[in-house]
Target: 3-oxoadipate enol-lactonase
Amino acid sequence: MAFTKLNNVRLHWRETGRKDAPAVIFANSLGTDCRLWDEVAAALSAKYRVVLYDKRGHGLSENAPGPYSIDMLADDVLALADHLELAQFAFVGLSVGGLIAQQLAVKAPERLSALVICDSAAKIGNDESWNARIEAVITNGLASITGPVMERWFTPAYHAEKQMELAGWIQMLLGTPNDGYAATCAALREADLTRVVTNIKTPTLVICGDGDQSTPPELVKQTADLIPGAKFEIIKGCGHIPPAEQPEALLTLLTKHFEEHIHV
Model:
């Protein structure tokens, strides 16, 4: 484990693979930490320098005061990349991490070799839905929304067949600070990149689980259609969290995209 003070916030990060290999940075979703990517990261580390980190307010990173913004979260990524002396890197973002990915591609396109937006969109939800979630979490804690969150994250088949694993993901969610979660919800509430994603020039892959109830495939495809040249792929038998539910299918898509666009 490594910790570094960046943008006045202590961020937790770790890396695997060769330091002389092309870099790939992964950003996790709301209510998860960087362990989400462990299986995918292990497979990619043979060929790439894989960097995982916890967003502010999540995992082992500092629970910095909110509200946050997507631009703030993107700046944290750039600061981490600078700290690691990564002039260029590929970026994979899931859910809120996908919004961070879009913001990076708009704000610092010269830093990106390839982009993957996973189960995300240029605009997710609305003020009413995010305000209600913030109120529930601040008033009653994350335990009060665990059931609905898990229904959106995973397919009914996963709930039926992977109860032990599901309990682990619930524990990860409950380990997120309530105020860090709420501050990230505020960033999601305010984010609307619909008008600017048309400017993305980075080679982009957009992925969605066919059973995603948080960012349904039709919503995710709308964003893919706005990005010039973006490829859109559906993962079958998968909800909102492909690295947990269908890691092998996700890895196949990532590997193909990286082989096409990252020079090793």
